[in-house]
Design goal:
The protein has 2 helices and 32 strands. By secondary structure, the protein is mostly beta strands. Strands 29-3-32-31-30 form a 5-stranded mixed beta sheet, with no helix packed on it. A 5-stranded mixed beta sheet has the order 20-24-23-22-21, with no helix packed on it. The longest helix has 30 residues. It is globular and about 50 Å long.
């Protein structure tokens, strides 16, 4: 398309041109010429009146060139040479069609680049169990010196309400997980007593009986299929509660291949499925072991690149993959190794761990930080060995971003803080208080 220059847009006046011979000797033609000219002028005037009336009625607006501000550059689609589109103004929209409105942008998973820390008054402290659920978040704390246990609920991770004491038994271990639209808590106390409690609203709780055949109060995971728990008290198989079943009903024991040789340590939900990791002992040796299930009842053995004397100890699911830690079996602290998986079934050793292992001292070979995951983000938090605590996030365990920390860091950035992932940040609890780090996007 040729761009008009200023000269092109300036009307050019041509030299006069005679349509008829000189009127001096042609008086009749002069009269005819004048009559023709008057008729043409009358026709032009009538046309102008007609066009003006049509413009007033809005009929010919599509013929009016758009102003430069109305032009929108077309994005490169199937053809990069597509002509720019014209955005109609609100006043030209047809009757009954709403004007465009601004749609709030949704921060994509993995876009965290920083944390803005602030102290939370009345938040959970010394937390034993923490979970997100349909109504927000739930946390249960460790018993005080007089055996009292406090639990908290929150709709957003910032405003917390403490539940009355006496609901939950004194426990040295506890686990919480969503079950249907409600919650289930397992509290493992003294004298090998384990209690299961359920709630539909997070406030009113009902004791749902014991957890025979002996579930420990650690790993649980839930999907739309139901709830899976690891019975680490006797160390064999899995336990399952189907979605929609009575929370107080009996657990369904699930047998695994080579069950007598397997000790599971962690279970998580990933992409709507269950993933369980642990250790298989055979002939005096040990190796990491993997199982997956779509329904909680039928489990398939996965694969982990063989590493003699290793067993899985930690599991963290993200949106696009999972990360795990293994450690040398029967050795303290052992040598920690980092693993990743894209599907939960196939695992490989990785060097992507942003913090790595402790290089010297009593903990030589142990993990240099904590690793947790909530199905959206994976968090690694700990001493980097560079004289500072660091926070790293990932959605797949392979690509990591170190979070810039700002705000009130007086209590959250130290070895005593326990991190819990929120949908939009991280909650840190200590014995002395609670902090929340609101995620800052890129």
């Amino acid at each position: 398309m040729r761009i008009l220059s200023a000269a092109d847009r300036t009307p050019q006046v041509a030299a006069p041109r005679r349509l008829f011979p000189s009127p001096a000797g042609r008086p009749v033609l002069r009269v005819a010429y004048l009559a023709l000219l008057l008729a043409a002028l009358a026709a032009l005037a009538a046309a102008a009146v007609f066009i003006g009336s049509r413009l007033d009625r809005g009929i010919l607006t599509s013929e009016v060139p758009p102003s430069p501000s109305a032009l929108v550059v077309a994005s490169a689609g199937p053809s990069a040479s597509s002509a720019p589109s014209v955005a109609p103004s609100a006043s030209s929209a047809p009757s009954g069609v709403p004007s465009p409105t601004a749609v709030p942008s949704e921060q994509p998973i993995g876009a965290w680049t920083g944390l803005q820390l602030s102290r939370v008054e009345g938040g959970p402290t010394d937390v034993l169990a923490f979970t997100a659920w349909s109504e927000g978040y739930f946390a249960i704390g460790a018993p005080t010196s007089d055996g009292q246990v406090t639990a908290w609920t929150s709709p957003d991770g910032r405003s917390w309400t403490a539940l009355p004491s006496g609901i939950f038994p004194a426990a040295y271990l506890a686990a919480a997980a969503p079950f249907g639209d409600g919650l289930i808590v397992i509290a493992d106390g003294d004298l090998d007593t384990t209690q299961l409690l359920s709630s539909a609203d997070g406030v009113t709780w009902t004791q749902a009986g014991d957890t025979s055949p002996g579930v420990a109060a650690l790993p649980m995971a839930s999907t739309a299929a139901g709830l899976v728990a690891i019975p680490t008290r006797d160390g064999t198989g899995l336990l399952f509660k189907a979605a929609g079943s009575d929370p107080a009903g009996a657990w369904e024991p699930i047998a695994l291949p080579n069950q007598s040789r397997i000790e599971l340590t962690r279970v998580a939900a990933f992409d709507g499925e269950f993933v369980a990791l642990g250790t298989e002992r055979s002939g005096g040796g040990a190796a990491p072991v993997v199982f997956t299930s779509t329904d909680g009842r039928t489990w398939m053995a996965g694969s982990a690149a063989s590493r003699q004397a290793d067993g899985f100890t930690m599991l963290a699911p993200g949106a696009d993959g999972l990360a795990a830690l293994s450690s040398t079996v029967d050795v303290t602290p052992g040598t920690t190794r980092f693993w990743t998986s894209t599907d939960g079934a196939r695992w490989t050793r990785s060097v992507a761990d942003p913090l790595g292992s402790i290089a010297s001292g009593e903990g030589d070979g142990g993990a240099a930080g904590l690793i947790v995951g909530d199905g959206s983000h994976i968090l690694v938090f700990g001493d980097s060995g560079r004289g500072r605590y660091e926070f790293w996030t990932s959605t797949d365990g392979a690509a990591w971003t170190r979070l810039r920390v700002s705000g009130d860091t007086s209590g959250a950035v130290d070895a005593q803080a326990n991190p819990h992932l929120l949908r939009d940040g991280i909650l840190f609890d200590t014995q002395d208080g609670t902090w929340v780090g609101t995620a800052v996007g890129g």
